[in-house]
Amino acid sequence: MHRSDQQHRVLNLWRAATVQSVRRDGPDLTARQMGLLLTVYLTTPPHTVRGLAIALNISKPAVTRALDRLCTLGFLRRKVDDEDRRSVLVQRTVKGSVFLSEFAGLILAAEAETPDEDGAGPAGDPQAIAV
User: Fold this and answer.
1) CA torsion sign, 49 to 45 to 105 to 10?
2) Residue 61 falls within a domain, yes or no?
3) Structure confidence at residue 127 (pLDDT)
4) How far is the C-alpha of 91 from the C-alpha of 4, rounded, in Å?
5) Which of 4, 5, 98, 125 is the most exposed place for a label (fewest CB within 10 A)?
6) Is the backbone peptide bond immediately before 46 cis, with ω within 30 degrees of 0?
7) CATH for 52
8) What whole-number distance in Å separates Cα of residue 115 and Cα of residue 130?
């Protein structure tokens, strides 16, 4: 598979999953919010605003704004660090875990409907992707 074919395939996969995510009942997250959420869930804790800002290469106020929204949705929570009361830890929640699990399901479903390397889609149609 050529690089341009790979790029098209993965971008189409991302498109299909994103389209499904905006069609379902639930919040639409910005790319920054999703990046922050995935970073907290897929990298080793503990997480702080400062550490997340460094990891994502964005400002602390940008992390705080994204974190405010994700906490309001119940996907993350803030907790004062018991060892250093000046520090606030960012923690995972069950609701956030469920959201990401469902989102992963959308990606897997999109992948199952994305054309194979030979161009054949789920119904044999080279361009078929159900969204």
Assistant:
1) positive
2) yes
3) 45
4) 39
5) 4
6) yes
7) 1.10.10.10
8) 11
